[in-house]
Amino acid sequence: MLYDMRWVDSAITIGMASYILYLDLTEIGGTIRTLMLGSPEDIGTDSVIGAVSDLEGVIDFTPYIFGSWVSMMPRSTPVWLSR
After folding, report:
1. What CA–CA distance (Å, rounded) separates 28 from 21?
2. What is the spatial distance between Cα 55 and Cα 51, in angstroms, rounded to a whole number?
3. Which of 44, 40, 22 is nearest to 31 (CA)?
4. CA–CA separation, 52 vs 46, rounded Å?
5. How far is CA 53 from CA 46, 48, 50, in A?
6. 14: which residues sit within 8 A by CB, 6+ positions away?
7. What pLDDT is stored for residue 79 in this prediction?
8. Dihedral angle computed from the Cα positions of residues 36, 41, 66 and 78, in that order, rounded to the nearest 10 degrees
9. So what's the pLDDT on residue 34?
10. How would you write the pLDDT of the chain (83 residues) with one tens digit per residue?
11. How far apart are CA 69 and CA 60, in angstroms?
12. Whether 45 contacts 52, CB under 8 Å
């Protein structure tokens, strides 16, 4: 080998792998959030709810979003229990 520097190939390979791993780790957060069906970070949830609620024929589901939907459900007997 020229100049007897065998370690240079390993150092460049490790450096390139580290750089690629760094780029992957900085981008993976948004991808995981999207795959887990999360909303984008830069969207205003309240403005989306308001815009959809303003459309004609749309029922206001705000109580369902904030957790009181259980108390609003009808207390009927399920079909499989009514035999």
Report:
1. 10
2. 7
3. 40
4. 10
5. 10, 8, 5
6. none
7. 53
8. -20
9. 78
10. 567 888 889 999 999 999 999 999 998 887 887 788 777 777 777 788 788 878 888 776 665 655 554 455 555 555 555 54
11. 12
12. no
End-to-end CA distance of the chain: 87
pTM, whole model, 2 decimals? 0.43
C-beta of residue 51 within 8 angstroms of C-beta of residue 42: no
In 1-83, which residue ranges form alpha helices assigned H by DSSP?
Answer: 7-35, 45-53, 62-65, 69-72
58 and 49 Cβ atoms separated by less than 8 Å: no
For tokens 């690629």, the residue is 20
